[in-house]
Amino acid sequence: MTYSNRLFCFHLCNMVALAIIASSHATLSPTFYDKVCPQALPTIKKMVQAAVQKERRMGASLLRLHFHDCFVHGCDASILLDEAPGIRTEKTTAPNNNSVRGYEVIDQIKSKVDQVCRGPVVSCADIVTVAARDSVVALGGPTWKVPLGRRDSTDAYPDETSDLPGPASSLSTLLANFKKQGLDARDLVALSGGHTIGLARCIFARPEQSDCSRGGQTLGPLDSTPTHFDTVYFKSLVKNKGFLPSDQALFNGSSTDSLVKIYSLNPGAFSADFARSMIKMGNIRPLTGTHGQIRVNCGKRN
Ligand code: HEM
Ligand SMILES: *[C@@H]1O[C@H](CO)[C@@H](O)[C@H](O)[C@H]1NC(C)=O
Ligand SMILES: *[C@@H]1O[C@H](CO)[C@@H](O)[C@H](O)[C@H]1NC(C)=O
């Protein structure tokens, strides 16, 4: 090898190495699937719309599925892995068992997307993230561009489901819990606004909250308009009608009261902050580049 060849290789090889390092740390991009499968996002949207039309609650369930994915070891679809040799599932842990819903909808979307894309090019983690956005839109909420390019984990992390906040949490506990994920007080209040849709078990309900106090029912709406993405959740907090203790903790004479008040009076401010915080939550510890895999079946590692 001549000196100039070696010099050439030195530079070229460094450039290749840098490119590989850069791609394994690649940031997410909203245009990630534009070339490889332009039909991916429209397909997810159509299937989410159909699922929400069939059962309005499914929109809430898909939003929560994304939250419970991202807070446990990042947005890597680890929540979707079933129990198998070498894998302890997250699905039966305390926060998820008989509570998280929508797994079948994600499986149906995945098979349709793989069909239109002629192969498994879209990760389960990205499908869950886009389905959460499309669910919010289907129930009348804001839209936003979803950064994409997440890959799927090869393991599940049941022990890390303790990172999910509990419904009896105080404000200081909630703030610390979100801080651990890189999320601040504004993210906490905005994202808690996800409780503008969906249902919860009455065993979690505060006594001040009327929808469960008649007795007999097992589930109650998290706000009085559980199929509409609106600001009624925040209006209820201001009236001391929060469903969960962790909801009312956001308006209970402390630092987050003012933000709750602002969102209760200003749908535009809530929409803008919710969209911004959803992007932040969706960016928690993604697997990118050569890390992880694109699962063929969301419930199993390849
Ligand atoms: C701030 C801390 C949070 C706590 C303590 C919390 C807790 C809970 C609990 C206990 C339930 C009811 C589960 C059941 O009864 O089985 C629930 C439901 C729900 N949560 Fe949260 N959550 C929090 C944050 C979030 C976030 C950040 C989102 C999304 C942005 C979210 C979206 C939902 C939705 C949509 C439902 C209703 C699901 C359905 O109807 O299937 N939550 N949450
Ligand atoms: C999950 O719920 C089922 C009932 O559907 C119950 O039989 C099982 O013991 C629960 N699993 C755990 C780990 O608590
Ligand atoms: C509200 O604050 C009071 C006084 O600090 C506290 O005792 C109570 O548990 C709080 N309630 C909620 C729902 O956070």
UniProtKB/TrEMBL annotation:
* Domain of life (superkingdom): Eukaryota
Q: Where is this site: Transition state stabilizer?
A: 64
The entry's cellular-component GO terms read: extracellular region
Q: Which cofactor does it need?
A: Ca(2+); heme b
Cited PROSITE patterns: PEROXIDASE_1 (PS00435), PEROXIDASE_2 (PS00436), PEROXIDASE_4 (PS50873)
The UniProt entry annotates the active site at: 68 (proton acceptor)
Subcellular location(s) of the protein: Secreted
Residues given in the record as Ca(2+) 1 binding sites? 69, 72, 74, 76, 78, 90
Q: Name one GO molecular function term.
A: metal ion binding
Do you know which SUPFAM superfamilies this protein is assigned to? Answer: Heme-dependent peroxidases
Give disulfide pairs as residue numbers.
37-117, 70-75, 124-298, 202-212
Provide one Gene Ontology biological process annotation: hydrogen peroxide catabolic process
Signal peptide coordinates: 1-26
Question: Which keywords belong to this entry?
Answer: Calcium, Disulfide bond, Glycoprotein, Heme, Hydrogen peroxide, Iron, Metal-binding, Oxidoreductase, Peroxidase, Secreted, Signal
Q: What is its main location?
A: secreted
User: What protein family is recorded?
Assistant: Belongs to the peroxidase family. Classical plant (class III) peroxidase subfamily. Belongs to the peroxidase family. Ascorbate peroxidase subfamily.
According to UniProt, the name of this protein is Peroxidase
